[in-house]
Amino acid sequence: MQKIRFRIKRFNPAKDRRPHFEDFTVEAEPETPVLDCLHEIKWHQDGTLAFRRSCGHAICGSCAMTINGQNRLACQTLVKNVGKNIIVEPLRSFPLEKDLIVNLDRFYERFYSIMPYFVNNSPPPDTERIQWPEDQELIDEAASCILCASCTSSCPSFWADDDYIGPSALLKAYRFIFDTRDQAQKERLALINTSKGPWKCHTIFNCNEACPKDIDITNAIARLKLKLNDL
Amino acid sequence: MAKLHTYDVLIIGAGLAGTRAAIELADTCSVAVLTKVFPTRSHSTTAQGGIAAALGNMEPDSPEEHMFDTVKGSDYLGDQNQIEILCNNAIPTVYELEHIGVPFSRTPEGRIAQRPFGGHSHPRACYAADRTGHVILHSLFEQSVRAKVNYYSEFFVTELLLNGGTVCGAVAADMKTGELHIFHCTAIMIATGGGGRIYRITSNAHVGTGDGYAMAFNAGIPLQDMEFAQFHPTGLYPLGILITEGVRGEGGILINSEGEPFMERYAPDMKDLAPRDIISRAIYDEIAAGRGINGKEYVYLRIHHIGREAILKKLPEIYKFCMTYVGVDCTKDPIPVMPTGHYMMGGVPTDTMGRVIADENNTPVPGLYAAGEAACESVHGANRLGCNSLVDTVVFGRRTGKDMREYLAEAQRPALPAGPEKKTEALIKKLLSKTDGIRISELREKMQGTMMENCGAYREEKRMQKAYDEVRELAADYDKIALDDKTQQFNTELQEALELKNMLDFAAAVAYSAMQRKESRGAHSRVDFTERDDANFLKHTLLFKTDKEPHTAWRDVVITRYQPKERKY
Predict the structure, then answer these.
(1) Which residues of B, range 43-102, sit inside 8 Å of A by Cβ?
(2) Which domain holds residue B529?
(3) Which residue of B has its CA nearest to A123?
(4) How far separated are the first and last CA of chain B, in Å rounded?
(5) Is B248 considered catalytic here?
(6) Helix or strand or coil: residue A3?
(7) Which of B339, B365, B396 is the last residue of a domain?
């Protein structure tokens, strides 16, 4: 066990006019997830600390936050990955609700805006639709997105213009546009073929660095651009 | 003043069961889905290995064989009429999921890929790598967006409201603002999932606090078969994170400190693909015999022999968990595993259409429904087979939705009781006003400890009694809790306090039910009653809340095709 110093950005809308930092010390192993340290603080030191979390192993996407300057899932980041002095802040570029909780309404609105659902209006066969493994692999990685918002929050284009659809929602668009079974490709491409769509991506690669699932989001957006170019 | 909303149907929980029902209902009636986390954060998303259906894509299979495997897996406690419904509907249900876009992994012929799973006699787990629950939940959520389902996200339901025994609504807190809301409705579906968080070691998400069990129990609804808590054999040591049975489905082997593949001794036929209750006990036995790795409480799961490429393609999440959390490269080295609290076979008792039943005579509670892990249909009996839970949620979620629609055609919406929110308001006020007291975590950790030590995989009378007594004492200490956070917005500490209350309520029910069943069956394994006792206990436990000790009643098991016999693997 070693002493880990946490500096956490705090904001309680009922009390504070602006955010401030507070320090905490936690005894932890190098292998302890940062989420467990936050629980240690919340459960044994200061119950007011507010953050979202659920699954604890990087599949529900609740606990994305900024840890030592990088967007990460608290549950997937171990103390040894970030050192003994850990600064925790809410995801940037979204309105702050309380402590590490941000308002994700804008993020979800971008998601809803791209027809984020499978469309195939042909009568289905009695069994599954046939899809070749190599076709399934086109969307396998994109379908592993957990909607944690790490990518969109890390994107300078989104910082500059939050009307930008953003990497997460574009990845979702990619997941359907490149699904060989889906029939709404044209409508979806039309929805994103605007100045707020893939063209706003300047291949900065922040989204790839931020993605806790190691998805090649920048590549997906580039492939959407190529698809739009072919129209 | 609490805000009032009126809907035909209220669905509590946005996992697979709740979302599937919502889609079924969205175009014909007004539906609200209340969920304490954004829908895609629901615990269904953590399901890894697969969804069971006898598609026969790898080798010939049939719903009859699926049914027999499930009946046997349940240690003959599952209701066979329900299991038949499950297995017959599994096939069209999986095809339907594929038709709405679920990106299943594929065979070279382009069909849905299937892998072997514990207790199943054929490769029956339809999978998408090792994130099957995740892709199904996202696909269903996406279709619910298409169907314009109304979600109330980050709403925490505190109480079911009944009027003369008929459902009329629920009270919920909007966690963002702290405001109370009253939902006046004609029918309610409890789809709140399980409650593995009553155990110290669990694969369950932090949200798995059994809210629906407590909600129903406190409204006078019985809980069925709560003694059957499944311990999954392979939780990642020491965290308890789930390592899917799919690892063994792909060829993984459990070994002890002597390098022995010990499952050959416990289940000579199915070995590492025996059902979970049997493998978990085998691991505990190996550890008790001093054959845990390095004398510690874990064994090894070896998978590297299937090759790096196969692991990265079929088990990418598992590969990453092992690297991230324990620094093990499972393409080269074995994974340290131990049993972990995983699934509640028991729950709110329901009939074939998801209607909640009020007693041993199967009397329905008008307007109340349940499905998924919150419910006990009972298709899993005393022990659930892997990948039968996902298919259970979708099959019975859909049936529940259909039946609710029929119920709405005839039912009236009863009046709300006077001051419906008063009880919740008083509870919250009390929690927020106390200044000196004990922390939530003190009670929660004690509860998780005693449930793990005294009401885990192996049980005996005096230890279960101890667990029950201690949980009751902790419940009595609940009044001493003081919160640091007295504010309204996103008071997550308050939410944890409400969740703790739910856990204390249903953990006591688990321990009490367990004491009533004086036999060993499936996941309920007693050292003082080591044999299954069909003469006395081939029946479901029904537990009712009273002012004092719970009242126990028994419900007959439905046996249609397969008479109980000795369970060997």
Answers:
(1) 43, 45-46, 55, 94-95, 98-101
(2) 422-541
(3) B99
(4) 59
(5) no
(6) strand
(7) B339
Contact with chain B for residue A128, Cβ under 8 A:
yes
Distance from CA of B359 to the nearest CA of A (A): 34
Number of domains in chain B: 2
Question: Cβ A57–B439 below 8 Å, yes or no?
Answer: no
- Chain B residue whose CA is closest to A98: B490
Query: B518: domain CATH number?
Result: 1.20.58.100
* B426 and B335 together in one domain: no
Is B96 contained in some domain? no
Mutation target vs A (from B156, B447, B492; most A CBs, 10 A cutoff)? B492
B138 reaches A (C-beta below 8 A): yes
| Amino acid in position B148 | K
Residue B160: φ, ψ to 5° = -90, 145
Nearest CA in chain A to B204: A55
CA distance B166 to chain A (A): 33
Residue from the list A14, A97, A139 with its beta carbon closest to the beta carbon of B176: A97
> Helix/strand/coil (H, E, C) string of B201-238?
CECCCCCCCCHHHHHHHHCCCCEECCCCEEEEEEEECC
Of A86, A47, A85, A111, residue with least CA distance to A74: A86
Residue B518 contacts A where some CB pair is shorter than 8 Å: no
Using DSSP, how many helices (H) and how many strands (E) does chain B show? 16, 23
Q: Could you give the CA distance from residue B22 to residue B97 in angstroms, rounded to a whole number? A: 15
Per-residue pLDDT of chain B (569 residues; tens, 9 = 90+): 799 999 999 999 999 999 999 999 999 999 999 999 999 999 999 999 999 999 999 999 999 999 999 999 999 999 999 999 999 999 999 999 999 999 999 999 999 999 999 999 999 999 999 999 999 999 999 999 999 999 999 999 999 999 999 999 999 999 999 999 999 999 999 999 999 999 999 999 999 999 999 999 999 999 999 999 999 999 999 999 999 999 999 999 999 999 999 999 999 999 999 999 999 999 999 999 999 999 999 999 999 999 999 999 999 999 999 999 999 999 999 999 999 999 999 999 999 999 999 999 999 999 999 999 999 999 999 999 999 999 999 999 999 999 999 999 999 999 999 999 999 999 999 999 999 999 999 999 999 999 999 999 999 999 999 999 999 999 999 999 999 999 999 999 999 999 999 999 999 999 999 999 999 999 999 999 999 999 999 999 999 999 999 999 999 999 999 999 999 99
Residue of B nearest to A63 (CA): B41
Catalogue all structural domains in chain A, each as residue range(s) with its CATH number. Answer: 2-102 (3.10.20.30), 105-229 (1.10.1060.10)
Task: Please list every residue in chain A whose beta carbon sits closer than 8 Å to the beta carbon of residue B441.
Answer: 43-44
**Interface predicted TM-score (ipTM) of this complex, two decimals:** 0.98
Instruction: Output the CA–CA distances (angstroms, integers) from residue B336 to A97, B241, B302, B308, in the order listed.
Output: 40, 11, 9, 18
Q: Does B309 touch chain A (CB under 8 A)?
A: no
- The verdict on residue B456 lying in a domain is yes
Tokens of B498: 């409400």
Test B100 with A118 for CB contact under 8 angstroms.
Answer: yes
User: Is residue B522 included in any domain, yes or no?
Assistant: yes
Distance CA A65, CA A73 (A): 6
